[in-house]
Amino acid sequence: MNYAENILETIGNTPLVKLNTLTKELPCLVLSKYETFNPGNSVKDRMALQMIEDAEADGRLQPGGTIIEGTSGNTGMGLALAGIVKGYKCIFVMADKQSKEKIDILRAVGAEVVVCPTNVEPNDPRSYYSVSKRLGEETPNSWYVNQYDNPSNCKAHFLSTGPEIWEQTEGKVTHFVVGVGTGGTISGVGSYLKMRAKQEGKTVKVWGIDTYGSVFKKYHETGIFDENEIYPYITEGIGEDILPKNVNFSVIDGFTKVTDKDAAIYTQRLAKEEGMFLGNSAGAAVKGLLQLKEHFSKDDVVVVLFHDHGSRYVGKMFNNDWMRDRGFLDEEITIASDLIKNHDNKHLVTAQTEELVAHAIERMKTHKISQMPIKDANGIVGSLDESDLLYHFMSDKNIANKTIKEIMGKPYPIVKKQTKLEEVSKLISKANTAVLVDLENGNHHIITKYDIISAI
Ligand SMILES: Cc1ncc(COP(=O)(O)O)c(C=O)c1O
Fold first, then answer.
1. Domains (range + CATH), the chain
2. Ligand 1 centroid vs 307 CA: distance in angstroms?
3. Distance 179 CA to ligand 1 centre (A)
């Protein structure tokens, strides 16, 4: 009989799969190292197991101990699987920008998950780096994994992923392209491939995929850690606002940055055009590969590594409402009805002339809106927006207790569903912050400055 003793024995030996459609414009053979075949559906199973086994070997992890880690999900899954088989408890700390699916999946495999805010400095006590470190110090018999600086991360790829790629390509690989987060994958695979190629008098170029909002590319090119480059981004799994010890910049030949929009679009395209239902960093990797086109020639064998599975992104990159909200769908916006497409199923928030201003303020806060049409028994007769409120508040601090009709402005202009985008934009000005669309069923919807800006 041929079977594995436990799920951990099925980690590794993933297939190499040719890309056929998306990379047609490239002159070379492009092969993907398809890591979703690992039991936790990502490449991270490899390094999770290696980190645990190395910690067991030198006593950092003791029997019955608790594994603590800051993880965006995939490392957590690998650690959780190993924890189950080997008898450890897991506590994971995640940033709140991560998909809900990722959090739910970790809870499904028995881990405790602590969620932290994304938009704080790494050394802020609320950041996920700081919280994981603190939990590591406070929890008895615990081991803080620290995948960013833990050398077993890179070692796992040097010992398994790198040799597999070398064997599967029969030593013909000429380029390795991969998204960079902790740096474990690129550094481990990159150094193994470069070492083997050198032994045989060949070369392998190693390219990292970075994202806008991350420090890697500039640091690699200039040696400058530029804090101005750090800002929140949407792409998941790659890019950092720190320099993890696992990024070995000396084995990386160059980085290319991929936008959030391109990464999301190519994540969808991989599924629809190659039948490869993969995570967001795979989309970024393919787009990055296309950006590097001029570096490849006919006889090259380019290996791109795909980290994780699409199921973790069904509420995001595979959800067209989510994509539309971020302007990631290349839909034509030419007429008024296009501008309200992503909110036309929502109820139009209004207030009545006789209501108190306090009610309108409450409603604006609840619905997170800056303006609204005002109605009386005959229909829409006025408008109220933030600047009206502020203006009246300056001269009358008791404004909240007045009726809306005392301070409301003129009603917003009404356009037809077919009115051209240019005409709608012309109607919006400092004095007039919105336009209403006649839905031809007795109802109206609102187009705000924000909708026009989103269309841009
Ligand atoms: C989906 C995904 N892509 C890419 C990466 C980056 O891999 P590495 O940390 O080995 O650089 C990660 C790691 O967190 C990941 O989870």
1. 7-38+155-320 (3.40.50.1100), 44-144 (3.40.50.1100), 336-455 (3.10.580.10)
2. 6
3. 7
